[in-house]
Design brief:
Layout lengths: L1 E6 L3 E2 L4 E2 L1 H14 L6 E4 L3 H14 L4 E2 L10 E2 L6 E2 L6 H4 L22 H18 L2 E4 L2 E4 L6 E6 L1 H12 L3 H7 L7 E10 L2 E11 L1 H6 L18
Helix pairs in contact: 1-2, 4-5
Length: 238
């Protein structure tokens, strides 16, 4: 079974839609998606994700199930330096690398920082959401793996956001979302694929096949957007 996560195209956050470039990205993405054999489509309720999905769904003649838990991860915490509310990621390396609890999937939500917000509750809600989809396809969560009650080769596509994708991957791969968020980047309209492996009968675990792939943009001659990436970008030479 394959889960394909698609981050929305370049966003216009003020209007919760897409920029002109974002619409071009979504069009290039649609040309890629239309060639897939997809069993189910799911989508965040936020405008930038729904607009991104709209072109692919139109090409495929399909509709998506809108899930509230696929919205961007919504659990602000209190910044330890400023005392102001902020998203629970993009933390200073000098801070998060020195808090061992943040680097474990079992303890990150219990750390002082994460307990200033509803991180634990929101994480549980997101995990329940993806586990509900998987159970419908025969994969039942069993500790830190899945029990394969019904083998399948279904493909499920989820249009959502960078933050919530990393929190879902954290659950599937048993890696702290703090490490994933700070160690990886998903460009707008990028494609991330994880597949279930049944190494032994009825025992399944998910493995990443690709993270943040933007080959559809290169094929269309559309530059990759780095919106959401705060470090200096090393430009490729022409």
């Amino acid at each position: 079974m394959r889960l394909i996560f698609i981050r929305h195209a370049e966003p216009d956050y003020e209007r919760d839609s897409l920029t002109e470039k974002g619409w071009r990205e979504a069009a290039a993405l649609a040309e890629r998606v239309r060639r897939w054999e997809v069993d189910e489509f799911y989508c965040s309720p936020l405008g930038r994700a729904r607009d991104t999905a709209s072109l692919s769904l139109e090409k495929c003649g399909r509709e998506a199930v809108v899930c509230d838990w696929l919205r961007e991860f919504d659990a602000p915490v209190t910044d330890p330096e400023t005392g102001k509310e902020r998203l629970p990621w993009d933390l200073w390396p000098a801070y998060w690398t020195k808090v061992p609890g943040l680097q474990s999937v079992d303890t990150f939500a219990e750390t002082d920082l994460m307990r200033t917000g509803r991180v634990k509750e929101e994480y549980a809600r997101v995990c329940a959401g993806i586990d509900g989809i998987l159970q419908g396809h025969g994969y039942v969560r069993d500790g830190k793996m899945y029990r394969a009650e019904r083998h399948n080769e279904d493909t499920v596509v989820l249009f959502c956001h960078m933050g919530v994708t990393f929190f879902i991957l954290s659950h599937l791969l048993n890696i702290s979302p703090v490490n994933l968020i700070h160690g990886m980047f998903l460009a707008p309209s990028s494609v991330t694929v994880v597949s279930a492996e049944e190494v032994r009968e009825k025992e399944a675990y998910f493995r990443c096949q690709m993270v943040g792939d933007t080959s559809h943009l290169y094929a269309a001659g559309e530059p990759v957007s780095h919106m959401g990436y705060f470090a200096k970008i090393l430009r490729e030479r022409p």
